[in-house]
Design a protein that fits this description.
Layout lengths: L1 H18 L9 E11 L3 E3 L3 E5 L2 E6 L2 E5 L4 E7 L2 E5 L17 E2 L2 E2 L4 E3 L31 E3 L7 E5 L3 E9 L1 E4 L2 E2 L6 E9 L9 E10 L10 E5 L2 E7 L6 E7 L10 E4 L4 E3 L18 E9 L4 E8 L6 E7 L10 E5 L10 E5 L13 E7 L10 E7 L1
The chain binds 2-acetamido-2-deoxy-beta-D-glucopyranose (4 copies).
């Protein structure tokens, strides 16, 4: 009897889905728990995001400096991107928080709690994403005319292929040319980087990033993948933003063809169709409403909610206010982003940025939990950049 009801319910769902779109889910917070800072105490790091590789989380970060624990000062040079691992709790999974015995250093008072990053040798710190040869790469992107090539990842690597021992993943990174905090080339091109990793017995060995195509998306084109991505049903779905960062576009490509530009398709949000016509960055017919609140965030698929989810920052709101939007399909319809959680701010040049969801830290590999881990960057006027880790349980 029970089995029959279950089967009937499954059939109803199967038949219903192509006709009626599933209702959007709207998760709400039940509780928020601060778990510690995510840090390698030997490094001061900005803007980290994570992806799951095996049982561990792999993090890529932006500007990183060696932190001198004696003087409490950062040491030059500034490395524009670095990477590191964090461990999961054996058997049960979830981030392996050190409650005691942490090393004193950046964002670590030596007593804990911290989620310790590792995998770097502070004596040979180098860019995780190699800087192109025409971007002052012999001086870490700093040019003799006082400008800088800030090759900063806005999203962690997107895994398109994985086996028990190895993975392939991709990043689309803007070729930002800056002077101070001014972006000199707002119509920047985007480089495609491939990350590969094969498991070894040395826990410290990091994956390798290779520059595949220096200008994969050309100057003035939409930087699909930079705003985030989700791999589902054989496709990589890739999000990009318009010129004013107030409109999101989506492209898709079969996971095996990421390096082939002609294999990409683009979504037209007016005709509701995919085609090989690349929309202009100022085209409003291709903008998918509400796919992100404009600031940095994370797209992922929640198996618990059977829904695509975006969590991140609102444009022009540089504080730790986390917004959420959800959709039954990668291209939408996305619900109007609403405020989910307010984290604590730093006291630096802004309160917080690089707001991230971290499904990589969940015990399941497919976000089957009714909750999510959040991180953000707190800049402090007198101290290192801090990456707090919070677990949100949903109602
Ligand atoms: C985490 O960072 C905050 C902000 O700087 C700091 O007050 C706190 O002591 C840090 N936690 C640990 C365990 O070091
Ligand atoms: C898009 O609009 C911006 C701002 O108006 C302009 O500077 C840029 O050249 C336009 N890009 C394209 C490809 O039309
Ligand atoms: C984005 O902002 C610009 C400038 O304020 C405005 O003209 C444009 O209509 C906005 N685009 C969208 C898709 O909302
Ligand atoms: C999207 O579809 C609309 C309606 O069919 C059309 O007017 C528009 O030109 C299309 N945009 C692109 C980029 O193909």
């Amino acid at each position: 009897m029970f089995n029959h009801i279950l089967l009937a319910a499954c059939l109803a769902q199967t038949y219903a889905s192509p006709l009626t779109p599933r209702a959007a889910v709207t998760p709400q917070v039940k509780s928020a728990t601060y778990l510690g800072n995510v840090t390698d105490p030997a490094l001061d790091r900005d803007s980290c995001g994570s992806v799951r590789i095996g049982t561990r989380a792999f993090w890529t970060c932006r500007d990183t400096m060696v932190y001198n624990t004696q003087s409490g000062q950062d040491q030059l040079p500034i490395i524009v991107s670095t990477a590191g691992w964090t461990d999961a709790v054996a058997n049960t999974g979830g981030p392996a928080i050190k409650t005691t015995g942490g090393t004193v250093g950046a964002a670590s008072n030596g007593k804990g709690p911290i989620l310790q990053m590792y995998g770097n040798n502070v004596n040979s710190l180098k860019e995780y994403f190699p800087i192109a040869s025409d971007n002052c790469n012999t001086n870490h992107g700093f040019c003799s005319d006082g400008t800088r090539w800030a090759i900063w990842p806005d999203s962690p690597p997107l895994i398109t292929k994985s086996s028990p021992k190895s993975i392939t993943a991709y990043n689309w990174i803007p070729r930002a040319h800056i002077q101070g905090l001014t972006l000199l080339n707002p119509s920047q091109a985007y480089s495609l980087y491939r990350t590969t990793y094969t498991g070894t017995s040395n826990k410290n060995t990091l994956p390798t990033a290779t520059l595949v195509t220096t200008e994969f998306w050309k100057a003035g084109e939409i930087g699909f993948g930079d705003y985030g991505g989700v791999v589902k049903n054989g496709y990589a779905y890739l999000y990009g933003q318009n010129f004013n960062h107030n409109g999101t576009f989506i492209a898709r490509v079969p996971t095996g063809s990421v390096e082939t530009r002609s294999a990409y398709q683009f979504y037209n949000a007016t005709s509701l169709t995919w085609s090989s016509t690349l929309p202009s960055i100022n085209d409003t017919t291709a903008v998918i409403p509400n796919a992100g609140a404009g600031g940095q965030g994370t797209f992922y698929y929640s198996n618990y909610y059977k829904s695509y989810i975006w969590i991140g920052q609102a444009a022009l709101e540089p504080v730790a206010n986390f917004y959420i939007s959800t959709a039954p399909a990668p291209e939408g319809p996305w619900v109007l982003p609403y405020k989910l959680f307010q984290g604590t701010n730093g006291d630096g040049f802004v309160g917080a940025y690089s707001l991230q969801a971290n499904p990589a830290l969940l015990p399941s590999t497919d976000a089957s939990e009714n909750g999510i881990y959040l991180t953000w960057t707190q800049p402090w006027s007198t101290g290192p950049y801090v990456t707090p880790l919070v677990y949100l349980a949903f109602q």
